[in-house]
Write a structure and sequence with these properties.
This protein has 350 residues and is an alpha+beta fold. It has four helices and 15 strands.
Length: 350
């Protein structure tokens, strides 16, 4: 009795090479996922307390009779390419400057004028001090992205027209004591604030607080740096893999497959979009482009050109091999015979 053919159990066991490839891909994927999770956890931990972070200048209202303007400057966003940040100013009055409070807005008793760096704000007497928006210029070089840093300056000073209570009602222009509070950390940035009174004298009692300087030291957040470097490494990995593949087809005399060539061409045009996916990235032309994008695109362009050349040569070789006549037959289909005395003649036409 003939037994049926049995499938050997070894056919179900993967080859060692496939096992190594599977383990390598799995370990790489796990490392990437763990790295992204760690970046997210670090960003979440660093975000705690950012909304409550503020720095204020010295208090000017220890004495209730002191007239002062309390300014809170909240940084909403930072526009790196245009070199400015958007700020919202909120105001409170103290002392004789306060006419009356209507809800959360104070009403000024006198004409107020103050300037913040390059902008000037005026509030006539009797008007409400509603929040105002403005811009602050920042100084820095975004070409160092993602390791660039910037500095923004708040120079605030003001005056008010004091009207005496006498019958004459004379007006006197007086310097305005100011307390400045800086707050706000936009998404994708780390900001450290410093506030100084530039009109202070040696003793605390003689401080005037009529001119306040605020400084914002701005840098990229850790999550932005991590993602930017991850995308940079990915771009270089694609470029190196393309170079290795192109070199292998020449070393082992292989014909590049058309889908593979198409993939490299598509990758060449996809690199700028991949670069622009970096978080809060500046325009193309920064240091990260000079160190990564330009070189990887050049490597890919050379690889695509070499693959086209190799494919063209292989097609020509295949065409020539198909056009070669077999031994004993001419290209026209005639059969030639070799005589014993080495003379050939045409005997038949096919």
């Amino acid at each position: 009795m003939k037994l049926p053919n049995l499938i050997h159990i070894s056919s179900f066991i993967p080859r060692p090479r496939l096992i190594r490839v599977f383990l390598s891909i799995s370990i790489s994927a796990v490392l990437v996922i763990v790295s992204l999770i760690l970046v997210g956890v670090n960003a979440h931990a660093s975000a705690k307390g950012r909304a409550n972070y503020f720095v204020s200048s010295a208090a000017v209202y220890d004495n209730a009779t002191v007239d002062y303007l309390d300014i809170t400057a909240f940084v909403n966003s930072i526009d790196v390419p245009n070199q400015f940040m958007k700020v919202t100013y909120m105001f409170q009055l103290g002392g004789d400057l306060l006419g009356r409070a209507k809800g959360i807005f104070h009403q000024t008793k006198y004409d107020l004028n103050f300037a913040s760096t390059t902008q000037k704000f005026s509030f006539p007497s009797g008007s409400l001090l509603i929040p105002q928006t403005g811009t602050i210029l920042i100084d820095g070089d975004f070409n160092q992205y993602p390791f660039d840093s910037f500095a923004g300056y708040f120079l605030v000073q003001g005056t008010y027209n004091y009207k005496s209570s006498s019958s004459s009602g004379n007006e006197t222009l007086l310097p305005l004591p100011i307390r400045l509070t800086l707050s706000g950390i936009p998404n994708g940035f780390n900001v450290e604030y410093v506030v100084l009174d530039t009109t202070t004298t040696e003793t605390q009692e003689q401080q005037q607080h009529t001119e306040v300087l605020g400084l914002a030291n701005i840098s990229r957040s850790d999550s932005v740096k991590s993602f930017a470097m991850l995308i940079t490494i990915t771009m270089w990995a694609l470029g190196v893999a393309s170079a290795v593949y192109t070199a292998s087809i020449y070393l082992f005399d292989k014909r590049p497959e058309p889908p593979t060539v198409g993939f490299h061409v598509a990758l060449l045009f996809a690199l700028p979009s991949m670069r622009n996916s970096m978080p809060v990235a500046p325009p193309i032309g920064s240091l990260v482009d000079q160190m990564c994008l330009v070189w990887v695109m050049m490597v890919l362009a050379i690889c695509v050109l070499l693959q086209f050349v190799k494919q063209t040569k292989r097609d020509e070789e295949v065409g020539n091999s198909q056009n070669v006549s077999p031994p004993g037959q001419s290209c026209a289909g005639s059969v030639a015979f070799i005589s014993p005395n080495n003379t050939s003649f045409l005997t038949a036409m096919s």
